[in-house]
Amino acid sequence: MSAQAHPKDPQPVIHGLMAEFNSADDLIAAARQTHDAGYSQVDAYMPYPIEEVSEALGHHRSKLPLIVLLGGILGGLGGYSLQFWVATIAYPMNIGGRPFHSWPAFIVPTFECTILAAALFAVLGMFALNGLPHPYHPVFNVPRFALASRDRYFLVVEARDPKFDRAGTERFLTGLKASEVFEVER
Amino acid sequence: MATLEDGGLEPRAVPYKPPVVAPGHTTASVTDKISEVVLQRTPRWWYLGFGISFLIMMMFLTAVTWLFAKGVGIWGVNEPVGWGFAIVNFVWWIGIGHAGTLISAILLLLRQEWRTSINRFAEAMTLFAVACAGMFPVLHLGRPWLAYWLFPYPNTMGLWPQFRSPLIWDVFAVSTYATVSALFWYVGLIPDLATLRDRSKKRIAQIIYGFGAMGWRGSAAHWHNYETAYLLLAGLATPLVVSVHTVVSFDFAIGIVPGWHATIFPPYFVAGAIYAGFAMVLTLTIPLRAIFHMQDFITIRHLQNMGKVMLATGLIVVYGYATEFFFAWYSGHHIERFTFLNRVTGPYRYYWFSLVVCNLLAPQALWLRKVRSSALGLFIVAMFVNAGMWIERFVIVITSLHRDFLPSSWGMYRGTMWDWMTFIGTGGLFLSLLFLFIRFLPMISIFEMRTMVPGTRGSEMTEVPR
């Protein structure tokens, strides 16, 4: 840690403080207490999804289902309209005397377009909501953070949090069964 | 579910179940063991295996080059059998892919926790099988370089695809299937790519895995959206996988050829696809788990369960055969009846009999727990099923076409050397891709395995009653 930030600096020149935990239970407890203590700019990092942590940090509903529904509706309507337009206006062809608008034959491509668009919206929507790709992030400046993808759990209180106080927050985090507290460079 | 504690079941009613993950593992050991396979030095046998697969793939390249030069005349297809090996192979490969989606999507929604150790691998198998399958209809076009005409796009010819044709439905179904499978696979890989990025020592590996991971850092807010996306993709893939083989069966069932024009085709094809797919998953899993010492993660329980799925779907397939024969008789239509008699007694009867041996008789061994619990026994049955399902498609495609309504137009079909080279060559493509996959990507989903370890707190996505 070579952060030159002084706790009394008016501008926060560090990203925040990072606490490391050895178990998921410790992280869940810490997330709850941090949230209850009034911190709002908090994020937790863990090697696999833990619902209690997301809940404790106030992530209740994802907007994603709505995005996917929208994608599905657009895909379905788009697929059907394309076939309708092609079969009746752009390239009408008499196949065995069937009507040009032979809708039962259009069900399969409509279904496939619905699924395709919904799936694309699900993945791209997830990327957009999560801000991915995100090549640089300050948390990676802490060498121990590489273990966040193995078996360690981290909680970060960001410096832009109104309640953030370099010394006070560090004391608070150390009191949460954190095995260690790091300063995160910007 | 009733448990011993609440007195719902007699003790003897709870059979011993081998665990999903061998005892003694932690999130760290799971991570290290799976990522080690990718991060260690390339073992020597890998070069040998990949080399042989690559050579077989070069045979495919040769066959395809000659096809481009001479046209489909080098294949055995002619009147009356215009759909030869190409369509047999297409249906066989695409069917194999179905098990991957079933494992990754349907078993996820059904909360079958044992799927976790095989889903990544099975999804990769799906992708590669679909890639092989996609070759055949395109090469069969006659002018394969114009394959993009199948897609609806504004062009100077003022031409649009014929949406009333099941062949166009197939284009939509298969391309959607390939895209959604690739998306699902990639989304599942992101957290594991981040693990590899964080654990690799080489700069180049860090950069490449880092690109793939897109800056994933395991944030709680991200996991929240991630899980939602993963579940929604599973929900979307579930009807999709059922629809793909249904649409493939429409290629046959919508036509009026006797032996194809049957309403049983969609469910019978879907069951056959899952049957063939599980056989292929077993064929690949059994050697790989031994080579990489993954018995802790792919336990005998996984093999047993796959054996059970194979037995169940195999019985549905047999029911499909029986229904076909019943309807041929019940229809009272003499040509329909003739087609099925011709299958059993005609010139292709040996194919039909091997079909019965491979798909009907061999899997009955799976009723025995001893066979289901033995890797070798399962492997042998799976090989029978792999062959049997290829023969099944051969019987459906060729025996139905070679003798139809007019005896004057009857004929015989056999694959030429180029047919065989193309078919075996796609096997080389499949194996080459598979070798690259096991070398460079984690073959078991690391982050999902972490939730399987006792003492971790699985989320809603993966948590199961223990």
Tell me the overall shape of chain A: rod-shaped
Distance between the termini of chain A: 12 Å
Helix-strand topology string of chain A: EHEHHHEHE
Using a beta-carbon cutoff below 8 angstroms, give the protein chain pair with the largest interface and the number of residues from each chain.
A-B, 66 and 68 residues
**Structural class of the helix and strand makeup of chain A?**
alpha+beta
Mean pLDDT of chain A: 86
The major β-sheet of chain A equals: 4 strands, antiparallel
Gap between N and C termini of chain B? 11 Å
Largest sheet of chain B: none
% residues in beta strands of chain A: 5-15%
The number of distinct β-strands of chain A equals 4
Low-pLDDT windows of residues of chain B: 1-12, 458-466
Spatial strand arrangement across the major sheet of chain A: 2-3-1-4
Structural class of chain B: mainly alpha
Percent of residues in helices of chain B: 55-70%
The radius of gyration of chain B is 23 Å
Radius of gyration of chain A: 25 Å
Number of helices of chain B: 15
What share of the residues of chain B does DSSP label as strand, in percent? under 5%
Task: List the main descriptive attributes of the protein structure presented here.
heterodimer; A: 186 residues; alpha+beta; four-stranded antiparallel sheet; rod-shaped; disordered N terminus; B: 466 residues; mainly alpha; 15 helices; globular; disordered C terminus
What this model shows, in words?
In chain A, helix 3 runs antiparallel to helix 4. Chain A is built from five helices and four strands; from the N terminus they run βαβαααβαβ. Chain A has 186 residues and is an alpha+beta fold. A four-stranded antiparallel sheet of chain A has the order 2-3-1-4, with helices on one face. With 466 residues, chain B is mainly alpha-helical. Chain B contains 15 helices and no strands.
List the helices and strands and how they pair.
The complex is a heterodimer of chains A (186) and B (466).
Chain A: E1 14-21, H1 24-36, E2 42-45, H2 51-56, H3 64-90, H4 107-130, E3 153-158, H5 166-174, E4 180-185
Antiparallel strand pairs in A: 1-3, 1-4, 2-3
Helix pairs in contact in A: 3-4
Chain B: H1 27-39, H2 44-70, H3 85-109, H4 116-139, H5 166-199, H6 203-213, H7 220-253, H8 265-291, H9 300-330, H10 334-345, H11 349-361, H12 369-372, H13 375-402, H14 417-440, H15 446-452
Helix pairs in contact in B: 1-15, 2-14, 3-4, 3-7, 3-8, 3-13, 4-5, 4-14, 5-6, 5-7, 7-8, 8-9, 8-13, 9-10, 10-11, 11-13
